[in-house]
Amino acid sequence: MIDHGLLTGTLLALELAAQVATLAHLLLGRRDVSSTVGWAGLVILAPLTGLALYWLLGINRITRKAHRLRPQTSEASDRAELAGERRAHRVLQAEYPNLVRLGHLGDALTGLPLEAGNRVEPLIDGDQAYPRMLEAIDRARETIGLSTYIFDNDSVGRLFANALERAHRRGVVVRVLIDGVGQRYSRPPMPRVLRRRGIPTAVFLASVLPVKSQYLNLRNHRKILVVDGRIGFTGGLNIRAGCLMASCPRNPIQDLHLRVEGPVVRFLVEAFDLDWTFTTGERLGGDAWYPVPAQVGPTLARGVPDGPDEDFDIIRRMILGALTTARERVRIVSPYFLPDQTLITALNVTALRGVAVEILMPERNNLKLVQWAAQAQAEQLLEGHCRIRLSPSPFDHTKLMLIDEAWSFLGSANWDARSLRLNFEYNLECYDRRLARRLHGLVDAKLAASRELSLDELAGRSIPAKLRDGFARLFSPYL
């Protein structure tokens, strides 16, 4: 016979031991205090649920070590990197003296140098970006590396699949990396389709759950295309028909992407290489992947990788450093704007010292929880003299930060905890007045179509709406 008293006691002892072990793991970790307190409270007050959620979602199981995965570059590109770093800082000192300290911050955070001699071209929506990306794929001679969060099996996805297959058949080395959650946005998943065509394709952290979810942890949110090590594309644009405005999609998505040429392309290759090696074990290297691109333009640029590994918290600290250097204006465009308290305070302090801080986010977000949480935070930003403007439909997925008239920061990262602490992201830091003027022009057009959010409007919300928004804000570290 089963001794129910003994069984109950054993289960309680096991539960207590699991709680103690989990709390010890929390205390020994390096997460921030509020997150530690939140997880500890959940584990103590709701042991079964808290233990399951923490060990499933609360732990970073990625332990990529830079010295283990360092790409096998070419000797020529290594020599060019050293020479380029010295040249870039001479240009920075001569042309952008007010930003020299910000340049040094980027050096220290990323361990990657600024590169001079780049050409960075903004591309609006899939209408401008997709034709240029497909053209680059069709002109590839040696290598293609493509990493994306979403690669839908739709009309646009099939255009890319066809172009990649053509390149593969003519002897180009093609490697495609798709996120494990992002692959589930369409059926059949594109990795399966590409593999059937013989294209080497890998899935980054394939999910054990047969679902798509914006809230699953540790996603590879980077968007990188590199062709022959000389032409790169990066930004916020996924591969899907909804980003092609001319086709009048049912759920249109505006976005911003970049076409990049010059020495900085090497670092887009390196970011792709590290993710590919981590996922498959195959190292990509040599002159085919790491040639020495010529200097082709005026932009000083640096790739800024970020992720829950050795690159942890880089983009967030770059943002904080940039805010301290701003003298006249800061402009931020983000679809998911949920900054933590440190960033909110930094934005408020920047505005209170006389810098114009403008924040543009969608009036109607595609994620309701994010919209409600953002509304709950907006009052604090407005009281700190920041200005918030709301963009109308179609949904704007652009991620962009501009400081004064010369510094631009754009890529895949949103202003939320998911991007800044959990996802693998990739931004490009650029020093170029002409590029900044063009990007300011794009923001001007967006602002002209937007409307301003006021404190009176927020105060006029109903009590149920305020309660809903305040409750949603509690989940902002996990959205």
Write the layout of secondary structure elements.
Layout: H1 4-28, H2 33-45, H3 47-57, H4 66-69, H5 75-95, H6 100-110, E1 115-124, H7 125-139, E2 143-148, H8 155-169, E3 173-179, H9 190-196, E4 201-204, E5 224-227, E6 231-235, E7 253-254, E8 256-261, H10 265-280, E9 299-306, H11 314-325, E10 329-333, H12 341-352, E11 356-362, H13 368-383, E12 387-391, E13 395-396, E14 400-403, E15 407-411, H14 417-422, E16 425-431, H15 433-448, E17 451-453, H16 455-459, H17 463-473
Parallel strand pairs: 2-3, 3-4, 7-13, 10-11, 11-12
Antiparallel strand pairs: 1-8, 1-9, 2-5, 5-6, 6-8, 9-16, 10-14, 12-17, 14-15, 15-16
Query: What is the end-to-end distance?
Result: 49 Å
Total domain units: 3
CATH class of the largest domain: Alpha Beta
Rg over alpha carbons: 23 Å
The pLDDT mean sits at: 89
Number of separate strands: 17
**Which CATH architecture of the largest domain would you pick?**
2-Layer Sandwich
Find the CATH topology of the largest domain. Endonuclease, Chain A
Put the structure in a nutshell.
By secondary structure, the protein is an alpha/beta fold.
Structure description:
By secondary structure, the chain is α/β, with parallel strands linked by helices. The protein folds into three domains: 13-57; 66-103 and 112-303, Endonuclease Chain A (Endonuclease, Chain A, 2-Layer Sandwich); 314-478, 2-Layer Sandwich (Endonuclease, Chain A). The protein has helices at residues 4-28, 33-45, 47-57, 66-69, 75-95, 100-110, 125-139, 155-169, 190-196, 265-280, 314-325, 341-352, 368-383, 417-422, 433-448, 455-459, 463-473; strands spanning 115-124, 143-148, 173-179, 201-204, 224-227, 231-235, 253-254, 256-261, 299-306, 329-333, 356-362, 387-391, 395-396, 400-403, 407-411, 425-431, 451-453. The protein has a 15-stranded mixed sheet, with helices on both faces. Strands 7-13 form a two-stranded parallel sheet. A hairpin with a 3-residue loop joins β5 and β6 (231-235). The longest helix is centred in the first third of the chain and has 25 residues, at 4-28.
